[in-house]
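Lab notebook, bench 4. Continuing the backlog of folding jobs that were queued last week. Each job is logged with the same field layout so the records can be merged later without manual cleanup. Today's entry covers O-glycoside alpha-1,2-mannosyltransferase 4, a 543-residue chain. Filled in by technician R.K.

JOB TYPE: sequence-to-structure
TARGET: O-glycoside alpha-1,2-mannosyltransferase 4
LENGTH: 543
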Amino acid sequence: MEYLKSRMPSTDTMPTLKSLQQASLKDAAVPSLTFLRKRIRIRGNSKFGVPLYLVLLFPCIVVVVLLLLFVRHPDSPAGRLIPSGAPPSIRKISEKHDKVFYSGCKDPEAEAKAYPRENAAFVVLARNKELDGVVESLKSVERHFNRWFHYPYVFLNDGDFNSTFKETVMNYTSSNVEFGKIGSEHWGYPDWTDSNVAKEGIRKQGDAAIMYGGMESYHHMCRFYSGFFYKHELLQKYDWYWRVEPEIKYFCDMTYDPFRQMAQNNKTYGFTIAVKELKETVPNIFRYASAYKRVNNLTSQGLWEMFVEPKEGYNQDGSRKPGTVPPSELPKDDPKYANEKTKPLPEEIMNTEPGKGTLPEIDPEAMEGDIYNMCHFWSNFEIARLDFFRSQEYEDFFNMMDRSGGFWMERWGDAPIHSLAAGALLSPKQVHYFRDFGYRHTTIQHCPANNPARQMERTPYFGPRDDPRENPTYGTPALDTKWSTWKEEDDYWSKWDAGKENGVGCRCRCDMDIVDVETKEGSCIPEWVDIAGGYLTPSGPGR
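JOB STATUS: finished
OUTPUT FIELD FOLLOWS
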C-alpha cells in the first residue's frame, strides 16, 4: 500500500479539467499560426520565400487601394461618401464662365478708399413687428461688410414704419437710410383679377397644408418681389441692389466690393444658394415660363439647362453624353424618335383665363420635351443689376406669368420667377456664384471653408456708430451692457475656422448645427456646376 501511494502523483501537480481545456485550445491554435508563417517559395528552387500570410494579405490591400481611388476620384459619385468639408472634397469649379472674385481676405479699408462706391443699395422688405429680426440682420451685414463700404439702405413696408422702428434701425447702420411705403398698385390684388376667386385659391392652399400657401400676405410679397420692387420710387436712382431679409446671418468677412466686381466682370445676377422648390407650390409655373420662351423665339444661352432635367443622351449643360445617341438623332422610323421642336404649342397655354378656377394639368409635350427640375436661385440673398428687371424682356415675362393667376391659385415664389427669367434671358457668364459668401436663412446655409493662405487679422468691431469706450458717458449701466454685448460678439468672430485645401472664404466661422447646402440633398449646385463647365480635375474640367 505504501508503495502504491508513493507511485501516485500529488494532487498539487495533477492537471485540472480547466487547465487541460486551456492547453488543448492553445495546442489547437499553434498549428494554424504556424501554418500562416509557412514560407512559400517564389520558384521551386528558390532560396527566398514569402510568408503565407503576406501572400493572402496582398490581394486584400490591392482591393482596398482600388476602392479608395474610386471613392476619391472627382468623377465618381462615390465621392459623396467622403465627409463634407474634408480636403480634397472641396472641389474646384471650372472658371470657364464664372469664378470667385477673390479667394481669401483683402484689406477692406484700402479697398473702400481706393475705389468709389457703385450706385447701389441694400433693399429690406419688413414690417414693424419684425424689428428684432431686422436688427439681427443689420448687425451681421455691418459687422462683415458695410462697416467698411457704407452702402445705403432702402426699407420698404406695405404699411407705415413707426418711430421706434426707424430710430432703432438708425442705431445699427453706418450709412444713409430711407424708409418707403409700397403703394396699393404694387401690393394686393390687381384690378383685372377676381379677388374673391384669388382668396378662395389661397384658402384651398392653406387647407392643403402647402407651405405658406394659406398666408395672403406671403402671396402679395412674392408678387411684389417678382414684378414691382424695382419700380418703387426710392429705387429709381440705383443701378444695383442687394436684398436683405430679417433674421439672416453672414459667416464670413466680405472684404471686397461685390457691386464693383459684378460691374467689372459684366455680371447681371449673383446668388449664394441654389435649391429645389417644393413641387406642390409651383405645379404649373414651368408651363408658362416655357411658353414665354417659345412664343418669343428665345434660344437658350446655356443657363436654361440648369432648370430642366437632362434629356436622354445629354448632360445637364446640353452636351451629348459619349457613346449615346439622343432620341432626336435616331432614324425617323425608330419608335424612340422625337422631334420636340415640331410639336405645336397647345391652345390651353395661351387661352387660360387668369384667376378662374384651377389651372389645367401640366402637359409635358407643351414644354418642348423639357421637364422642370425644381431648381432655383434662393432669392432672399441676391445681388443684381436693376436694369435686368427693368428691361422690356423681363417685363413681358412677368406679365405673362402674372396673368396666369399662378400667384394666387398656386404659391409661386419670386425665387423661381427670377430664376426662370434668368434662364430664358441670361447666359452662365452673366451669373455669379458667391461661393465665398457664407450665408444662412432659416435652416438653410452655405458656409465656405477658409482659404488657408490668405487670411488677415481683423479690426475689432463694436457697433456701427461708435466705440462705447470712447463715449463720454461710458461707465453708465446702459453703456456697460452695450459694450459687454458687442465685446462678447466680437470675441466670437475673432476666432475663425481653420483654412482647408481649396477653401475660398475670409475669416469664416460656420454654424455646425446644419449641413452645408452645397453638398446636401436638394441642392442645385451640381446643376450649376454642370452648366458652368464642371468640376476641375488634375487633367482639366470634368464631370
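OBSERVATION: The longest helix spans residues 17-37.
SIGNED: R.K.
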